[in-house]
């Protein structure tokens, strides 16, 4: 660690110059030693003296390789901590609340009411996921005000909680990234945070939108890239992953759009990331890999989840039935890229061998490597019952491995891009994460994107006081479907 921080003071050119100088000094020293040593007394030195050119080239290569490794190795990025928003108890959206809202709003046909009831009952959602504030208003009208309220409540609560846990002064935050897929007010939600916390004028803010449920992973990836490119100075990036579903409630009769109403619920997570090596001992996780694959060049993948107007002009997000196939295809191609980065050598060799044999036999059955050898914990995308089932089937994951995803869907619904943090919180609430464990977060997003974050745990986890599972973890796991 000390050597690394010492080396980071120099530019690569200076390091190269230093390596030449070291080589020259070494050569001269060795030459002097060999010239003055009685060769008969030391046969090893005699051998070296006869192959000086070889020896020096060898030494030179070693030094250069070492320097190249140290210069190009990405700076570690840590997740200091994170917080998940848990709305008030009275925002719980039970079956009765849904039924009451749907009937009283008088905005749906009887056929649509029956369809939503059927989907809701089969969805895997329990009675405790949270609805947006407007559902509890008497006029049942979603307005800009309620959408801002929904986003603001989640962001401020999660960030307040995070800052009090991490003891990082506001003044140290130099980057703010907010991701919110479907709601883009002006000024942006990132600016809302800058204003609320009175952040300094040098803060860099980024506001991502329209990127679907994988944008939480994309925001973490962006934060890591910014922190790594920031040179030697220690930086702190606040990443807020939220969604505001108020203005995206669909009032119409298109079935694929009605599915959205049934599974999306309120959620938000805030994470503080840093490249400050001095905070390593306080950090929860270190980011080992991030991988994003975009499958939007394919028309059916692009259209799998799509915001549009229905035939009567009502705006909604259609979750096409084809989404499940698209997610499976995307995942297959994603893990081909992920495998070489994370799998142990033995698994990789086995995977390569099976892939070659499969291609020779042309049996059309792609071999899926055993990712349980690469990760101790998996936060599988909680996009919906069928999404979890597809990931489990495709990757041959046991029910134990998809348990956190199923429980997350049951307790919080599809909270969009923040869902992987709710899953991490589940692992922590169950005290399952130990120091050194590797955690895989896998998220899908409209577009169609597949994103992976691979973390290493830096400490044995325990349940933080603000863990969203705090008051209910004793009841989980339950049978969700
Ligand atoms: C909706 C479900 C809970 C339904 O559960 P089941 O599979 O048990 O039910 P089922 O297949 O019998 O379907 C019940 C009825 O609903 C219809 N149905 C199901 N899915 C439909 C859809 N997407 N569009 C239109 N109709 C649909 C079926 O045809 C059937 O109608 P009939 O009875 O008439 O035959 C599940 O299919 C599911 O989880 N789907 C995936 C949801 C999804 O797309 N999630 C991704 C969110 S997007 C995301 O996470 C990423 C992002 O936003 O970026």
UniProtKB/TrEMBL annotation:
Pathway(s): Lipid metabolism; fatty acid biosynthesis
Protein name in UniProt: 3-ketoacyl-CoA synthase
Enzyme class: transferase
Family of this protein: Belongs to the thiolase-like superfamily. Chalcone/stilbene synthases family.
Highest rank taxon of the organism: Eukaryota
CC annotations in GO: membrane
Transmembrane feature ranges: 51-71
Name of the gene encoding the protein in the UniProt record: LOC120253032
Keyword match Transmembrane: yes
GO molecular function: acyltransferase activity, transferring groups other than amino-acyl groups
Pfam families per record: ACP_syn_III_C, FAE1_CUT1_RppA
Keywords, alphabetical: Acyltransferase, Membrane, Transferase, Transmembrane, Transmembrane helix
Active site: 213, 294, 377, 381, 410, 414
Domain spans labelled Beta-ketoacyl-[acyl-carrier-protein] synthase III C-terminal: 376-456
InterPro entries: 3-ktacl-CoA_syn (IPR012392), ACP_syn_III_C (IPR013747), FAE1_typ3_polyketide_synth (IPR013601), Thiolase-like (IPR016039)
Lineage, uppermost ranks: Eukaryota, Viridiplantae, Streptophyta, Embryophyta, Tracheophyta
Protein EC: 2.3.1.-
Domain FAE: 70-354
Gene Ontology biological process: fatty acid biosynthetic process
């Amino acid at each position: 660690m000390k050597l690394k921080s010492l080396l980071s003071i120099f530019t690569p050119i200076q390091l190269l110059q230093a390596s030449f100088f070291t080589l020259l000094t070494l050569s001269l020293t060795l030459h002097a030693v060999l010239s003055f040593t009685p060769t008969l007394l030391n046969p090893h030195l005699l051998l070296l003296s006869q192959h000086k050119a070889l020896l020096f080239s060898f030494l030179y290569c070693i030094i250069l390789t070492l320097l190249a490794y140290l210069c190009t190795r990405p700076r570690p990025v840590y997740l200091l901590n994170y917080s998940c928003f848990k709305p008030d108890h009275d925002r719980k959206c039970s079956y009765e609340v849904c039924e009451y809202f749907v009937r009283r709003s008088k905005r749906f046909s009887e056929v649509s009411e029956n369809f939503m009831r059927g989907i809701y009952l089969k969805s895997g959602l329990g009675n405790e996921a949270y609805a947006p504030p407007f559902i509890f208003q008497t006029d049942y009208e979603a307005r800009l005000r309620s959408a801002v309220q929904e986003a603001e409540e989640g962001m401020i609560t999660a960030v307040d909680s995070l800052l009090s846990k991490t003891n990082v002064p506001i003044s140290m935050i130099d980057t703010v990234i907010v991701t919110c897929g479907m709601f883009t007010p002006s000024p942006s939600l990132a600016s809302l945070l800058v204003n609320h916390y009175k952040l300094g004028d040098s803060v860099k803010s980024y506001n991502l939108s329209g990127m679907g449920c994988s944008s939480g992973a994309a925001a973490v990836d962006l934060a890591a890239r910014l922190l790594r490119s920031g040179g030697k100075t220690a930086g702190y990036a606040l990443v807020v992953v939220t969604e505001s579903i108020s203005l995206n409630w669909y009032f119409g009769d298109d079935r694929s759009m009605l599915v959205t109403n049934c599974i999306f619920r309120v959620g938000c997570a805030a994470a503080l990331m840093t490249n400050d090596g001095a905070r390593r001992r306080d950090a929860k996780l270190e980011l080992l890999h991030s991988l994003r694959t975009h499958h939007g060049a394919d028309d059916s993948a692009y259209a799998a989840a799509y915001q549009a107007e229905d035939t009567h002009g009502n705006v909604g997000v259609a979750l096409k039935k084809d989404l499940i196939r698209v997610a499976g295809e995307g995942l297959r191609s994603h893990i081909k890229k992920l495998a070489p980065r994370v799998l142990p050598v033995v698994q990789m060799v086995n995977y390569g061998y099976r892939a070659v044999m499969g291609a020779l036999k042309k049996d059309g059955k792609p071999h899926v490597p055993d990712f349980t050898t690469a990760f101790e914990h998996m936060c599988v995308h909680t996009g919906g019952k069928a999404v979890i089932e597809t990931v489990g089937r495709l990757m041959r994951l046991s029910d134990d491995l998809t348990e956190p995803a199923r429980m997350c869907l049951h307790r919080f619904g599809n909270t969009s891009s923040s869902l992987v943090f709710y899953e991490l919180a589940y692992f922590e609430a169950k005290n399952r994460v130990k120091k050194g464990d590797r955690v895989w977060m896998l998220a899908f997003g409209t577009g169609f994107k597949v994103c992976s974050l691979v973390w290493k745990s830096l400490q044995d986890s325990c349940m933080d006081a603000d863990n969203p599972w705090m008051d209910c973890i004793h009841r989980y796991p339950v049978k969700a479907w």
